[in-house]
Amino acid sequence: MATNVRLIDDPVLRKPCDPVDMWTAEVLLDIDKLLEEMHATMKAERGIGLAANQIGRSLRIFILRDGEGYKAYINPEITDKSELVDFEGEGCLSIPGTMATTKRYRKVTMKWIDREGTNKEEIFEDMGAFAVQHEIDHLDGKLYVDQFGPLKREMVVKKHKKFLKLRRA
Q1: What's the pLDDT band for 167 if we cut at 50, 70, 90?
Q2: What percent of the chain is modeled with pLDDT above 90?
Q3: 139 in helix, strand or coil?
Q4: Does residue 6 lie within any of the structural domains?
Q5: Is residue 147 part of a domain?
Q6: Distance in angstroms (rounded) separating the CA atoms of residues 33 and 56
Q7: Which of 11, 85, 113, 152 is the most buried (most CB within 10 A)?
Q8: Are 101 and 87 in contact (CB under 8 A)?
Q9: Torsion angle of alpha carbons 85, 86, 89, 95, nearest 10°?
């Protein structure tokens, strides 16, 4: 079942998420339910990724679209990164109606735990690298607009609020 995505002013988006540190059957069942809820929400919103805190759960978990399904990343951590580049057109389900150019690393190495509890590590490049950085920022309590100075940030937030107002009308 899809859940409403939390928007920019929601305090849950500004708090660093808690790691998943217990792997009991009960916790795994809760994570499976959470992942299915996240997937339904991401699909309904036509997103490419979603962090758990975007639906109100402060856990270090995010998902990325993978074909018709998704891939889950639990306790992700970037362990290596390459040069910083401009990423044009970054958007966010928590700030709908806006896109902007940000700075992201073109290539990152990330380690995480999959939904079966297996440790994984992979190199992500270009769009994949930009996506995992965006989602890890969420887990750290950051939004892409935090990269901007006050004027640019205010411009993006105003555009977002105008979009919401028009959507409600």
Answers
A1: confident
A2: 87
A3: helix
A4: no
A5: yes
A6: 14
A7: 113
A8: yes
A9: 80
Q: Which long-range CB contacts under 8 A does 157-166 form with residues at least 24 apart? A: 157/8, 157/95, 159/97, 159/98, 160/8, 160/95, 160/96, 160/97, 160/98, 162/97, 163/96, 163/97, 163/98, 164/7, 164/96, 164/97
Query: What amino acid positions are annotated as catalytic residues?
Result: 135
Q: What CATH code is carried by the domain that includes residue 16?
A: 3.90.45.10
Residue type, 21: D
Structural domains of the chain, count: 1
Model pTM? 0.94
Tokens of residue 98, six digits = 């806006």
Please name the residues in contact with 88: beta carbons below 8 A apart, sequence gap of 6 or more: 101
Q: Does a structural domain hold residue 138?
A: yes
Beta bridge partners of 105: 84
Tens-place pLDDT, residues 78-122: 999 999 999 999 999 999 999 999 999 999 999 999 988 899 999
| 49 vs 93: CA distance, rounded Å | 9
For 168, the token pair is 């409600």
pLDDT of 8 reads 97
From first CA to last CA, the distance across the chain in angstroms is: 26
